[in-house]
Specification:
By secondary structure, the protein is α/β, with parallel strands linked by helices. Helix content is 31%, strand content 24%. The longest helix is centred in the N-terminal third of the chain and has 14 residues. The N terminus is likely disordered.
Length: 205
């Protein structure tokens, strides 16, 4: 849970927790190889591996310190179906069509430019198997709170980058490459168009 003074902050642990829980529901009972892009300290991985499944999970991030924490934490649990490595979302070190489930959550809004996000989505499409699927989230610029808080973030934090997008901006990247949007889940507001966060599941079938 978030601290009381963090509630309502779209980058807080409370919203991230809601997203992780929804992702866990979306991939329940799936098998194969899952890639968690922007894994941080492995919070999503921890949720996934508490389920009764045969998933193999790889977490990638660019932050060495976070990866170190993740490795140390999961080594203590002696999990053999989980690995962490350093990699960039825009240049993933995996073969074409080699991943069953590619996930990137709580990450895109921190990328410096839209081009970075587009490149990451294109990489996710490249590595995703034809019978697999992709999950990511959108910090929705059509939500007024998201739009203004992100636009003026520089007034209270000069060290952070926050970028919001419309659902269409990001889903078009995948649909133009032959994928179908299977599901959109609003988080924080029941109407998808105006929800502050939208979780997206896409695949070929």
């Amino acid at each position: 849970m978030s601290k009381p003074d963090e509630r309502g902050d779209l980058t807080s642990d409370l919203f991230r927790l809601k997203i992780r829980n929804k992702v866990r529901q979306l991939i329940n009972n799936n098998t194969g190889l899952l890639l968690d892009i922007g894994c941080g300290t492995g919070l999503l991985c921890e949720n996934l591996l508490t389920q009764e499944n045969t998933l193999k999970v790889i977490g990638v991030d660019t932050n060495h310190e976070m990866l170190k924490i993740a490795n140390e934490s999961f080594q203590k649990r002696r999990l053999h179906n989980l690995n962490f490595l350093k990699a960039y979302a825009q240049n993933l070190p995996f073969l074409n069509k080699s991943i069953d489930i590619a996930i990137c959550i709580n990450t895109f809004y921190n990328f410096y430019t839209k081009d970075d996000v587009v490149a990451a989505l294109e990489e996710m499409e490249r590595i995703c198997k034809r019978d697999g699927f992709i999950i990511f989230d959108v910090r929705n610029k059509k939500n007024p709170f998201v739009y203004f808080s992100f636009k003026f973030v520089w007034m209270y934090d000069t060290q952070v980058t926050l970028n919001a997008y419309s659902l269409k901006e990001l889903t078009t990247v995948l649909t133009s490459r032959g994928l179908v949007i299977k599901e959109t889940i609003p988080i924080g507001f029941p109407i998808t168009m105006f929800a502050p966060i939208i979780l997206v599941k896409a695949g070929y079938q």
